[in-house]
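FIELD: query
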Amino acid sequence: MITLFKDPFFGEFDWYFNHYPCKCETTSKIKVDKDDEGYKVLMSVPGLTKEDIDLNIKDGVITISHEKEEKTDDQYFMSSFTKSYNLPDDVNVDKISGKVENGVLEIVLPFDKKKIKSRQIEIQ
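FIELD: result
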């Protein structure tokens, strides 16, 4: 066992972390799919509800964040994360939607049909 400090107070921490190692995942799994309608982002958020998650868009960047505190008489627990991603230029920002179901956050990023138009340009 490795001791952080010689103070007995920290020895209790060493004992606790050696006997109860953290089995939590520090990063959420993310999957992005693309089809004819747009992008679908799936993110694992086990134990969280729609009230626990904030989705914000500013200057072409989508930010997914969460912060939660739980207090009881003898325990204090806090969890949080923030992830930011640049949005593709072809996304219609006004029609982005999100939902949480069974521990999975689903964000739908529909295409902006006006920005997708393609055409053949004749070279002169």
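FIELD: remark
The beta strands are 30-34, 38-44, 53-58, 61-71, 76-86, 97-101, 104-110.
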